[in-house]
Amino acid sequence: MSGSETVWQGRYLRAVREGTWEYAARNGDVSATVIVGVHDGRLILVEQMRVPIGRRCLELPAGLVGDEEAGEALADAARRELEEETGFRAEAVEPLGDFQSSPGLTSEDFTLVRATGLTRVGEGGGAGNEDIEVHLVPVGDLAGFVAGKRAAGVAIDSKLLAVLGPVLLGALT
Predict the structure, then answer these.
(1) Global pTM?
(2) Is a pLDDT exceeding 80 seen at residue 173?
(3) Which domain, by its residues, includes 60?
(4) For the chain, N or C: smaller number of CB within 10 Å?
(5) Domain with 9 in it: what CATH number?
(6) What is the three-state SS of the chain?
(7) Which residue has the higher pLDDT, 166 or 102?
(8) Total structural domains in the chain?
(9) Residue 115: CB atoms within 10 Å
């Protein structure tokens, strides 16, 4: 980022100005992972309060890589976050690609991963004061489940498009 200026910096984020652009960036060498896991034909989703939008949000399980341990491996972080949030332990984690969260607003990127060989080892719910509700949604009922949550006022994370895409694209043909 040549020519960039930090306008404000907090513990986790900073606001950056580069030319005419202003954007948010994470502090340190921290990235994110988003986890797609299907157990017994049911997609694992989480719902939690998100302060920036002032309401609960339906999401794929996700978390930060390297926020607790410098140099943490992507697969280790994905396994840790999946178990903390959902109570499922993954035997294998396969990277599916790197994506930008919102490239006009933030430099944040995430790696989408597929978790397989899932075993339920706990209730999930998150760490500390996180209030995460776990949903196991039959894959065939996903679009209806998401529509029901939206109608109930729950926000829908755009990363769910990764799994809703085929349904939505089918509606365009």
Answers:
(1) 0.91
(2) no
(3) 4-166
(4) C
(5) 3.90.79.10
(6) CCCEEEEEECCCEEEEEECCEEEEEECCCCEEEEEEEEECCEEEEEEEEEHHHCEEEEECCEEEECCCCCCCCHHHHHHHHHHHHHCEECCEEEEEEEEECCCCCECCEEEEEEEECCEECCCCCCCCCCCCEEEEEEHHHHHHHHHHHHHCCCEECHHHHHHHHHHHHHHHC
(7) 102
(8) 1
(9) 27
